[in-house]
Design goal:
- This protein is α+β, with helices and mostly antiparallel strands.
- Helix content is 34%, strand content 24%.
- The chain contains 13 helices and 24 strands.
- The strands form seven sheets. A five-stranded antiparallel β-sheet has the order 1-3-5-4-2, with helices on both faces. Strands 20-21-22-23-24 form a five-stranded antiparallel β-sheet, covered by helices on one side. It has a four-stranded antiparallel β-sheet with strand order 9-14-13-12.
- A hairpin with a 5-residue loop joins β17 and β18 (465-472).
- The longest helix is centred in the middle third of the chain and has 71 residues, at 233-303.
- The protein is elongated and about 135 Å long.
- The two termini are 78 Å apart.
- The model is unreliable at 301-365 (pLDDT under 50).
Length: 570
């Protein structure tokens, strides 16, 4: 809502402009004959005769409203707005008409009033333009109307000459100012766009302090405050200082975050080291137990003679059959034993099996282990498996690489038993790399939650190092880097969102955004934010990329209507 006040001498021109325009509708009036424009003019002129010495008694106010408010601006609402505006401006006890025009895309109305009141006093006009700005702001807040955002919606195609140059300068300064940390830097960036910046010193002496700025483009010079009030020298200094403080705060925040990440990384390293030491101790204890069992097994085999074999032949055969039956299961607990199938047992005919010539060990007919974890062993690997050193194998499961030692145990009368000992476990880092820096799990977690991260000492292709803020989609497919934190709030349609959320949505990604709907009391919430196929922004608490569950229809059985009773039969 913008108000414009004009004071004149003739009622005829103001009334005819307001009432005779095509599509004009008279909404309200007081103290005038509203038959037509001529009758209204006669009524105003009759009242002004009470103060014939006053020439400027014609009051003309035009109130223009934002185009977003058009659906709510009914005729009754515009009458209330006009009456509230006149009450706050002190336009009371006098003649007036309120006329609505519809010849532009934004709704507006005209108020023509007589400054000569019914008691022959004048409507106060002191500082009316200053009061007009304050009253328009108060009325907008009271009725919840839209506040315009400066020169954002200016129709540049209608501008010509100096006005068009001024708007170009405005857009350039507005775009560059948030990234500048000093006025010389601002002047240098503007020079790249063809805009010359001149510092105005007090008294024209370059040795004295600066008191203003001018911008020159295409031979046209504007004072900074003429381009926009927020670009005056004092306001520019405030903006530069705010940028500097924000940059320092960002550096401190990044340093704090870096130290926190380093502390977390040290803690994780200590935990990994402690886990490694515990794992090595367990493996050492397992190795000691295995060596002890291996020595006992080898010692028993070597120390056993032919007589002992003959005496215990029956018991060995029965024990082997029992063990073969107990080990017939296909699966074993993790990290313990694997077995090869036992050789078929032949009936004893009372003849003792033949012994080797040296008599150093008992040889039995058995099948050797030739497969580990579904992998067929080569003859060399099988020979290494049955050597005292055992067989070392490395395999990968997920992003963990395991190295394990396999050794067989050959019990009496049973199948070979395969033992497994974990030598090492190593995590294979598959996190994405950004300019030579591999992202940590904590950084990936923050990106997945819709936040940005800061990376130091990234390396370009030419070898130079740089730092910045990284924005990525939650599936780590694309990334953007900026010098400033990308969390500045911008307004798009009915949403207030961060710059980073808008950037990702504009490139077709779904982002976990911080969303706040338009309105002074709307809370901020974390939702999925994206741009649909029609180019409109939308948000939801559910991820639109996931399939929606089928809707369950609840069918309520219909109840037959009750038959109306016709009364008792006579």
């Amino acid at each position: 809502m913008i108000g414009k006040i004009v004071t004149g001498k003739s009622f005829k021109g103001a009334v005819e402009y307001a009432m005779n325009k095509p599509g004009a509708r008279l909404l309200a009036c007081d103290g005038v004959d509203a038959t037509d424009a001529r009758s209204v003019t006669r009524s105003f002129n009759f009242q002004r005769k009470a103060r014939p010495e006053k020439e400027y008694v014609v009051g003309h106010v035009s109130l223009s409203f934002h185009k977003d408010d058009t659906p709510k601006l009914t005729d009754e609402t515009m009458i209330r707005l006009a009456e509230e505006y006149m009450r706050r401006m002190g336009i009371a006890d006098t003649q007036y008409i309120v006329v609505r025009h519809t010849d532009t895309e934004h709704s507006h109305l005209h108020i023509v009033y007589n400054r000569v009141r019914y008691d022959a006093k004048l409507v106060r006009s002191h500082n009316e333009r200053i009061r007009n700005v304050a009253v328009c702001k108060a009325v907008k807040q009271q009725y919840g109307l839209t506040f315009s955002e400066g020169k954002k919606n200016v129709k540049t195609e209608r501008l010509h000459g100096p006005d068009k140059v001024k708007y170009v300068v405005y857009e350039a300064v507005r775009a560059i100012l948030p990234e500048c940390l000093s006025l010389p830097e601002l002047a240098e960036r503007l020079r790249d766009k063809g805009i010359a910046t001149t510092f105005v010193h007090r008294g024209g002496d370059s040795e004295k302090e600066v008191q203003g700025l001018t911008f020159t483009m295409n031979g046209i010079t504007f004072k900074a405050s003429q381009v926009d009030r927020k670009f005056s020298y004092g306001n520019l200094c405030k903006s530069i200082e705010a940028n500097r403080m924000e940059a320092e705060a960002a550096v401190r925040q990044a340093e704090k975050q870096r130290r926190g990440e380093q502390s977390d990384e040290r803690k994780r390293q200590r935990r990994r080291e402690a886990a490694r030491l515990r794992r090595e101790e367990r493996d050492r204890q397992k190795e000691i137990a295995f060596q002890k069992m291996w020595r006992e097994f080898i010692g028993e085999e070597i120390g056993r003679g032919p007589d002992a074999v003959a005496r215990q032949d029956g018991r060995i055969r029965r024990a082997g059959e029992e063990r073969a039956g107990s080990y017939a299961a296909n699966e074993c607990p993790e990290g313990t034993v694997f077995r090869s199938p036992a050789a078929p047992q032949k009936k004893s005919n009372g003849i003792r099996p033949a012994m080797p010539a040296n008599g150093s060990a008992i040889e039995r007919s058995r099948e050797r282990i030739d497969e580990i974890r579904g992998r067929r062993l080569s003859p060399q690997e099988q020979a290494q498996l049955y050597s005292p050193q055992g067989l070392m194998l490395t395999y990968r499961k997920g992003n963990i690489e395991y190295t394990r030692l396999y050794r067989p145990i050959r019990p009496e009368g049973g199948p070979d038993i395969l033992t497994e000992h974990t030598v090492s476990e190593r995590r294979i880092d598959t996190n994405p790399v950004v300019y030579g820096i591999r992202l940590s799990d904590e950084q990936l977690r923050k990106i997945g939650e819709g936040e940005y991260i800061r990376l130091e000492n990234m390396k370009r292709e030419d070898g130079t190092l740089f730092s910045g803020y990284v924005v990525m989609d939650d599936r780590f497919r694309a990334s953007w880097i900026s010098r400033q934190p990308p969390d500045r709030i911008v307004k798009e349609d009915k949403f207030y969102i961060r710059e980073m959320d808008k950037l990702l949505a504009d490139h077709g990604y779904v982002v976990r955004a911080k969303v706040r709907f338009w309105g002074p009391t709307q809370p901020e919430s974390r939702q999925y934010f994206w741009k649909d196929k029609y180019g409109l922004y939308d948000c939801s608490y559910d991820d639109p990329r996931l399939p929606k569950p089928p809707r369950q229809e609840i069918r309520v059985p219909s109840v037959p209507p009750l038959k109306k009773s016709k009364g008792p039969k006579l």
